[in-house]
Every structure is written in structure tokens, then in C-alpha cells.
Amino acid sequence: MGAAYGTAKSGVGVASAFGGLMFGYDIGISGGVTTMDDFLIKFFPKVHERKMHAKEDNYCKYDDQFLQLFTSSLYLAALLSSFAASKVCTKFGRKPTILAASLFFLAGAAFSAGSQNLSMLIIGRVLLGIGVGFGNEAVPLFLSEIAPVKHRGAVNILFQLFVTIGILFANLVNYGTSKMHPYGWRVSLGLAGVPAAMLFIGSLIITETPASLVERGKESSGHTTLQKIRGVEDVEAEFQQIVNANEIARGVKHPFKELMKRNSMPPLIIAVMMQVFQQFTGINAIMFYAPVLFQTGGFKNDASLLSSVITGIVNVFGTLVSIGTVDKFGRRELLLQACVQMFGSQIAIGAILLHYLHATDSLTKNLAIMVVVLVCLYVMAFAWSWGPLGWLIPSETFPLETRTAGFAFAVSSNMLCTFIIGQAFLSMLCHMRAFIFFFFAAWIFAMGAFVLFLLPETKNVPIDAMVYTVWNKHPAWKRFMVDEN
């Protein structure tokens, strides 16, 4: 793959992107597990009783705060741990941070699979969440810093590609383990140890990024590493750019305080808003609870899990499209096109459910298939746009002096919004019913306007030249670029 130029020889990009595989597996596994009767009987017997009630409201049978906490607790832990991960990333480097993430993942998988009560189950999810906080902080930064500028988008999207593969893997696992009584749910949760082990091995074989080595005073190692990952001897121009950026960064003793300055606002606002919009598209509501959503629409348990596998496959192929197009067409075009497609899909799903799915009936076979098709169109658009670019754009817009701190804000914002969606979606589905899809459609309209008026194009712009080539020339952001020293 041409986009992996500079990383293919050592497998650096692929090894580090296994953090995405772990994250994706955690996203995808919870929805299927929460529909398994054996799991509900052990931890949520009241939910199981409602589920089995023949006349139970389609929209409300899974409405339970503790059931939602099983999904969302991971993201609350990730939110809190992302700031600690930022400190580790700066002081010790990207590689040790990824290693720490893998160890938390392994511990979380073991705790989850062996849970004997709800407290153990939540502790396992919290450990996984800490791993997500560390992994999502370090891996996108790692990929952006090792990638050649002309391939930076495609290399960074390796992370999101592995997220989608992890979701698909989780859906396939759930489809198989749903028939393994009474411990299929343990197998599903325990198999999180497979991508965690892959990440652990990958964290041992990857090299540290040149930018991180220079940042920690290891300029000679940084120069040698840059030569290695580029595969050429002459890297003086790029290395000098890293050194110059680092000299500026060394003058910043308090990066989080630096982020609050006026000239740091453009990348910070964009990083945070990209995460807010990414989550309020409704994507994780669908990915977390796809089996629940399809059961609400009238699918039986096996059919709902199979429908989740189909959307998972679409998600992977949509991300592959992004890898081939992001550095060709740019970030803005992909985001705007996707807004149109996602908006239309959400409106259509909402209209079908509003008119044809009531409290105690189900959709006809043709309408149910149409909902699956619309979900696939929605997931496809997200997969080649807001999914990967929500992580790419924040990782490439902060200068070195505030990069890890700024990206910590991006990660924590993402995890906060993911926690809110995870904790609230089933209750929102119960109370808002079909109107929840119009709610997400309104957010998609807002984020399209945000891209149109406030998001600059960052394709082919060196990370450490953003101020001069992007912010100083943007009509909305150039007024923020004043010297405050």
C-alpha cells in the first residue's frame, strides 16, 4: 500500500494501530453481550424479565441505567485517564504509553471475563477504559509523527481502520458466542485479550517517533530513527523542522496553560468540536447498541446480530475508501459529502420508525431490510469521513509545544461525549422513540455548517507549519493569531 511508505519496512504503523483494534473491539462487543439472555440473567435479571414480556414496549425493554453503565463506564475511565496519558506521553514517549495501554487492556479483559458480580464487571470495564485513554492519546499522535506529510492522512487512518476491524471482529464473536450457553458472554469479553496481546507485542517492536525523541533531548537517536523510517539518508530538512519546533516547545513549561491562550484557540476549538460532532452523529449509539436497535425493529436475536455483522463489514470497507481518498480529495470534501449522506439516512430511518414501528408491533420484513440498508449507508459515510478524520485532524493541527496536551483535550472530549451517548441512548430511545434519529440528524446539519465555515483544509500541510499556512490565512481564525509573549 503506497500510503504506508516510510512505515512498511518495520511494520510500525500496523503494529501501533492495533490500539485501534482494541478500541473497536470494546465498542462492538458490549451491544451484542447486552442482548444475551445468560448475561442479562446473571447481572440484569429485571431487564431480562422485561425483554421476555410479550407486550413490552419495543423502545423501552432495554432501558436500564446499570445496563447502560456497563457500556459507558469504560468511556468515563478513558476520559479521566487521558490527561495522565498526556503526561506519560510527553515525559516517557509514545511507545511506553502504548505499552501501558496494552497492559491495562489485558487486565480489563481478564477481569471482565471472570466477573462474578456487577462490581467486578464494572471494574473490568474501567480498566479497559484506562487502556483506551492511554491508547487513544498515543496511537494517533504516533502515526501522525512518523508519516511523511503527503501520506499522513492515509497512515493515520490505519488507526480508524483497525477500530472498524475491531468492531467487525466483535460482531462476529458475538454472533458465534450467542449460541454458547451459559458462558458465551464470558468468551466474548475474554477475547478482548487477543487484540490486547497484539497491541502488547506491537508496543515492543515499534520504534519511538523522532519528534518524541528530540522532545526528550535525544536528538541523535531522533535523527537515526527518522532515517530508518524514511528509508533514506538525507532527512536534514525534515529533521531540522522537528528540531526548530522542539526549541519553541522547550520554552513552554505549562502546555495546558499555553492551550488557554488566544492563539491556541483555533486548533483547540476544532479538536474539541470534531469530537463532539463525531459522537453526536449517533454513530456509537448504533455501534454500541446495533443488536438492540435491530431487535427493536423486529429482528430476532440471531438476525439482529447478523445485521450488526453486515454493518461492521460496511464500516471496514468505508474506512478503506477513506485511506485511498483522504490525501487525494482532502478533509473538507469528505466531511461535507458525508454530512449529506448521513443526514438523509437518519431522516429516512426516523420517518420509517415513526410511521411503522409502534410500541408492541414490529416492522415488516421489507421495511426492516430497508432500515438495515439505510444504517449501512449511514455507517459507510461515517467510515470514510467523521470516523477517521475526527482523530486525524486534531492530531495534525497542534504545534509540538501543545500537541500532547491538546490531543488530551481531544481524547477526553471524545470520551465524555461517548460516555454521555453510552449512558443515555437506551433511555433516549425509550422516551424519544423514533424522534431520536431526527435529534441526531439535527446535529449532522450543524456539523456540516461547522465544516463549511470554520474548518480549514489541512491536506499536504506540514504539522509544524500550520500557523503560517493555515491559521494566519483563515478568515475566521486569523484574528486569533496574535503574539502574546
From TrEMBL:
Membrane disposition: Multi-pass membrane protein
Gene3D superfamilies: MFS general substrate transporter like domains
Cross-referenced CDD domains: MFS_STP
Keyword Membrane: yes
Superkingdom of source: Eukaryota
GO cellular component: membrane
Alphabetical list of InterPro entries matching this protein: MFS_dom, MFS_STP/MST-like_plant, MFS_sugar_transport-like, MFS_trans_sf, STP/PLT_plant, Sugar/inositol_transpt, Sugar_transporter_CS
GO MF term set: monosaccharide transmembrane transporter activity; symporter activity
Major facilitator superfamily (MFS) profile domain location: 12-459
Transmembrane regions listed in the UniProt entry: 97-114, 120-143, 155-173, 185-206, 268-291, 303-323, 335-357, 369-393, 405-426, 432-455
Main localization of the protein described in the UniProt heading: membrane
Subcellular location(s) per record: Membrane
Classification via PROSITE patterns: MFS (PS50850), SUGAR_TRANSPORT_1 (PS00216), SUGAR_TRANSPORT_2 (PS00217)
Annotated Pfam families: Sugar_tr
Keyword terms of this UniProt record: Membrane, Sugar transport, Symport, Transmembrane, Transmembrane helix, Transport
Keyword Aminoacyl-tRNA synthetase: no
Similarity comment text for this entry: Belongs to the major facilitator superfamily. Sugar transporter (TC 2.A.1.1) family.
Name of the protein in question: Sugar transport protein 13
Protein species of origin: Hibiscus syriacus (Rose of Sharon)
